């Protein structure tokens, strides 16, 4: 809402962290990408993060609050490792009573969400790479799906979030990644990040928000392959594209 001075009453647009994220994490990265500078996205994220770490600024990620103090104490550790103690193989297989119905509901929900999410992500990434064949398939798609399924099953035993294909992979493709070496390098970086969690967990959200929008700008080029002249393709395509940002979910967009 606007106040009497035609300014945002919540002063949200005056937040310096937002403008730093837009200018350095968005506009600067866009210029670097326009001039084909390698690692432009990493440069933007790193620059905004480093600027947001000092505490005596109006856009610090560690303000002098309870939450900010907790973040700062964790950040100061630099290197830390927490062994798996309470999340390894703790699935509950007792399906008596209402647990059976809840399990069936969760299984079906996660199944269709992951199938749709994984399918949409893998296909869009393959399309982005330019390796999709004329029949709509892409090389070694069966191996990709099987790997995704196996990793999700193994990841659940460790109590972590779904180990599946995410749309953020577009950032790696935008930097030039096209082969399995990209995935192996990413996996190695994830392994290293286990020990540097205090630093990596202290990357503020305004450092990555604009860069993800830029990745979306690169991926939206695929809409030119839609036959907008045919109403049978135009209507479901538009509804899918419009519903995804409102529902915050690729799966819900495709279901709609």
Can you walk me through this structure?
By secondary structure, this protein is mostly helical. Helix 1 packs antiparallel against helix 2, helix 1 runs parallel beside helix 9 and helix 2 runs antiparallel to helix 9.
Number of helix segments? 11
Structural class: mainly alpha
Question: Helix and strand succession?
Answer: HHHHHHHHHHH
Helix content: 55-70%
Give the biggest beta sheet: none
- Determine the N-to-C terminus distance: 30 Å
Number of strands: 0
Shape: globular
Query: Mean pLDDT score, rounded?
Result: 82
Low-confidence sequence ranges: none
Strand content: under 5%
Over the alpha carbons, how many angstroms does the gyration radius reach?
A: 21 Å
Give a nutshell description of this structure.
The chain has 256 residues and is an all-alpha fold.
Annotation keywords:
0% strand; 59% helix; 11 helices; 256 residues; globular; mainly alpha
SSE inventory with pairings:
Elements: H1 16-34, H2 40-52, H3 66-75, H4 99-129, H5 141-157, H6 169-174, H7 180-193, H8 197-200, H9 205-219, H10 231-247, H11 250-255
């Amino acid at each position: 809402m606007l106040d009497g001075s035609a300014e945002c009453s919540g002063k949200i647009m005056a937040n310096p962290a937002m403008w730093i994220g837009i200018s350095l994490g968005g506009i600067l990265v866009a210029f670097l990408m326009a001039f084909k500078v390698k690692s432009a996205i990493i440069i933007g994220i790193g620059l905004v993060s480093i600027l947001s770490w000092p505490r005596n600024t109006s856009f610090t990620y560690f303000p002098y609050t309870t939450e900010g103090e907790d973040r700062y104490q964790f950040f100061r550790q630099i290197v830390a490792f927490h062994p798996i103690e309470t999340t390894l193989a703790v699935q509950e297989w007792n399906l008596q009573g209402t647990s059976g119905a809840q399990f069936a509901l969760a299984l079906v929900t996660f199944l269709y969400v992951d199938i749709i999410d994984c399918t949409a992500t893998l296909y869009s990434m393959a399309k982005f790479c330019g390796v999709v064949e004329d029949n709509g398939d892409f090389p070694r798609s069966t191996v990709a799906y099987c790997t995704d399924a196996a990793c999700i099953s193994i990841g659940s035993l460790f109590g972590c979030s779904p180990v599946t294909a995410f749309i953020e992979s577009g950032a790696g493709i935008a930097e030039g990644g096209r082969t399995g070496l990209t995935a192996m390098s990413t996996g190695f970086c994830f392994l290293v990040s286990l020990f540097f969690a205090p630093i990596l967990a202290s990357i503020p959200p305004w450092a990555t928000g604009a860069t993800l929008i830029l990745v979306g700008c690169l991926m939206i080029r695929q809409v030119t392959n839609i036959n907008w002249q045919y109403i049978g393709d135009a209507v479901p395509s538009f509804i899918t594209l419009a519903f995804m940002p409102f529902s915050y979910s690729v799966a819900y967009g495709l279901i709609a």
